[in-house]
Structures are given as C-alpha cells and as structure tokens.
Amino acid sequence: MKDIFDNQILCNRCDSKMQRGEFMKNGFVLRILVCPECREKIVHPVDEVEYNKFINLKNKEFKVKMRIVGNSYTVSIPKEIVLFMRAQEKMMDDMVKLCFEETGRLSLNFNKILRKKKW
User: Fold this and answer.
1) Alpha carbon distance, N-terminus to C-terminus of the chain
2) Which residues contact 54 (CB under 8 A, 6 or more apart)?
3) What is the mean pLDDT of the chain?
4) CB 3.0 to 4.6 Å from 109: which of 19, 62, 90, 97, for a disulfide?
C-alpha cells in the first residue's frame, strides 16, 4: 500500500510544496510535512494514532502485585503495555536496566528510544 506522504502535498495556506521532516515528542519520532513558507505542519496520521495510544497508556495507572520468586521479587508488566511495546519494536527477551531513582520509585529502561522506521 502506498503512503500518503509519498505524494506531493501543497500547503492549505500558501500553496507551497511541503517538505518532509521529523519531530521528536516524548521519545517518539513523528513524521511530518512542513511548509517552508508559513511553517504549517502536518503529522503523519499513522504516527499520530500510535502516539495517542502511547499517551493513553502513559496516563493510565496499573496496580500490579509484587511476588517472591526464589531470592528475587517479581512484578508483572500488564499485557496492554507489552503489546504496545511489541508493536513498536521487537524488544522482548532483551536485557533491561532497572534503576532505583528515589525513595518509592523504580524505573525500567529498555535502552532503546521508541522509534519508527525511517521512510
């Protein structure tokens, strides 16, 4: 299937040919078209949908149980989050970085920025 951004698109305001670009927002690289004259921007619709899914997950709070397995504790990651991450990149079975940020706060870093493939 062809991508809409593969076609020449003219700006609604000034009829100039829009140019491809990228925009970083919360770790996401969003593909955009930018008008060189009036700086009007159009975000790729697929990227915008994926970004909105991320924002919805980010704003959701999950309650999970902490369990003992051997000499360690485990916390399960909700399926919604795992499915979203799998859709972004195949990063399951990778090593993750666990950080003790401050009292009462841990973070998991997957050492990769969620990035779309370049077009």
Assistant:
1) 14
2) 26, 28, 84, 114
3) 83
4) 97
Tokens of 17: 């040919």
Check if the beta carbon of residue 19 is closer than 8 Å to that of residue 29.
no
Give the 3-state secondary structure of 60-104: CCCCCCEEEECCEEEECCCHHHHHHHHHHCCCCCCCCEEEEEECC
Q: pLDDT value at position 117?
A: 47
d(CA 51, CA 100): 27
Instruction: State the greatest distance between any 2 C-alpha atoms of the chain, in Å, as a whole number.
Output: 66
Instruction: Say how far apart CA 21 and CA 34 lie, in whole Å.
Output: 7
Distance (Å, rounded) from C-alpha 16 to C-alpha 18? 6
